[in-house]
Sequence to fold (144 residues):
Amino acid sequence: MLMDIKKRADELARRFQTRNPFEIIQGLNVILLFVPLIDTKAFYQYFQRNNIIYIDENLSRKEQIFECAHEMGHMFLHKNANTIFMDSRTMLNTNRYEKEADTFAIDLLISDDILTEYQEYNIERLSRLLEYEKRLIELRLNSH
Fold:
């Protein structure tokens, strides 16, 4: 599954000639809304045959980029899973979905070229350089 996630992220980056999730979703006609959110940074919704990504307008640009890529992961991998409903109304564990969306996001945002360029860096140093949490760098290195 993880290799499939990376393959899908790389295919999108190739198709749109960018790893910027905002540019990719524009090309996919996804509706992107920056709104004030409480208790969540972003979420994805499939509504009336429209893909909609909501992102907290108060996040830093770097966080908005990551959250957009993360929600794209849900869009491509979990379109029919209502994770907000599952989180708030059921006892189903959505951790797997969140990890897969994180994996998609970090695979999209960090190219193999960047990993090759900084291959001598450890996780701590890569995390500081690329400004992503160590757990995300670890996810990326595991899908390499």
